[in-house]
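Annex B. Sample input.
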Amino acid sequence: MPKHVAFLGLGVMGYPMAGHLVRAGHHVKVFNRTAAKAARWVAEFGGAAAATPRDAARDAELVMMCVGNDADVRAVAIGESGALAGMTNGSVLVDHTTASAHIARELHAAAAAQGVGFLDAPVSGGQAGAESGKLTIMVGGDAAAFAKAEAVLTHYARAVTLMGPAGAGQLTKMVNQICVAGVVQGLAEGLNFAQRAGLDPLRVLDVIGKGAAQSWQMENRGKTMVADEFEFGFAVDWMRKDLSICIAEARNNGAALPVIALIDQFYSRLQARGGGRWDTSSLIRLLRDVR
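Annex B, continued. Sample output.
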């Protein structure tokens, strides 16, 4: 059945995600801090735009948001003009932002105090996954809230999984980013080695991509790494934000992240070179410059 849905945050991820909801037949109202972008979304997909998160969330059964960091989440969800101020008893707030487990638990408590469900639901799959509707969503929260939201989330996901209580979605996304960073660095080192050894790197990718070394990063970033192309994809700035969340959480739970701490330093060096908006696969540039 069509639902009244709000979507807050129309960045490279949120813009197409909200569009999938319209295509699925839902009534969608959007909010974006840059009003012109919200107006452009409405012109493309229909629906309506609101001046504040509260206005967008009013009368919505489900409110999704996808913003930048913990501070953005608080600004959009809490306060007089925040989403929770416009939500009604029994509705559900779904946060797709990659943020900390702490903010997830904070919002879960704030939502519960007014009879609203909350799910922390970060996504994996990047801009391409958002545009194709094939994201992976890892969710933390109550089973009752998840049951209300799951079917709607599938409109832009190939997998939606409840991982545990509030914060579990964010913790799972941290595991994802830890693994991704390690794979990207390994791929960068392997391709750099292949080129210095005089091998054809594209032929190498074709061969090892059929074996145990195969990965999403190899399939989607291997050729562009060889071509030294990085003006696209998941930005170094955002990966550093995500890794800082992982490292902070590891300090709390005692997990050792020695490789991630090192890779975070590599990304810092790329930022210093002006590569903050380059794709995360640009790690190979640091290796190419070593003589």
